[in-house]
Amino acid sequence: NAGVMQNPRHLVRRRGQEARLRCSPMKGHSHVYWYRQLPEEGLKFMVYLQKENIIDESGMPKERFSAEFPKEGPSILRIQQVVRGDSAAYFCASSLGTKNQPQHFGDGTRLSIL
Amino acid sequence: QKEVEQNSGPLSVPEGAIASLNCTYSDRGSQSFFWYRQYSGKSPELIMFIYSNGDKEDGRFTAQLNKASQYVSLLIRDSQPSDSATYLCAVNALTGGGNKLTFGTGTQLKVEL
User: Fold this and answer.
1) Partner-chain contact A43 B96, CB within 8 Å
2) Average pLDDT score over residue span B48-70
3) CA separation for the pair A44, A37 (Å, rounded)
4) Which stretches does DSSP call E strand in A28-97?
């Protein structure tokens, strides 16, 4: 499967725990984006990364959220000390990286906080 | 004013009809425009993208862009029940190298038998 791969598909955490969401971009894509979709709301940009660099994190909450895209391995979105309001679908997308190139989305991770 | 606005619907059309979905955006410097289809509980799927004023056709889908009016639309010809979904309009932002997408809240389309 050459598409954007996200795991896990579903993740359940208790309040105060950490959540780690993983994303492997499409083959040949070096640019990764994370979006969050709250229930009954639109997709909101969180962060844009290239290998080993955060390019734009203007949509990331100031606390508890971090993202990385290491030289080797998938991109990771990390949420520390989760709260109920973090319950959402988190989507990863990738693109070839050239300006205006379309972004292709993975299946998402549905995060539920108990 | 929302950055990307769409009528939430639902927009109901009979099978075989043309569905017309509309979107306006506020950032006059936006350069690229995308339509995604999202079925309930699924991820967004890219349907069309357009960069230049005018029409772009792909099968049953036609995207239309008017930068002067800050307006982009998606036409679906010969609508099928399988087209019933939420259609998301997305516009690139100029920050972050132009690769950050701003989405509308989507228009729900229902194609009725």
Assistant:
1) no
2) 96
3) 6
4) 31-37, 43-50, 53-56, 65-68, 75-79, 88-95
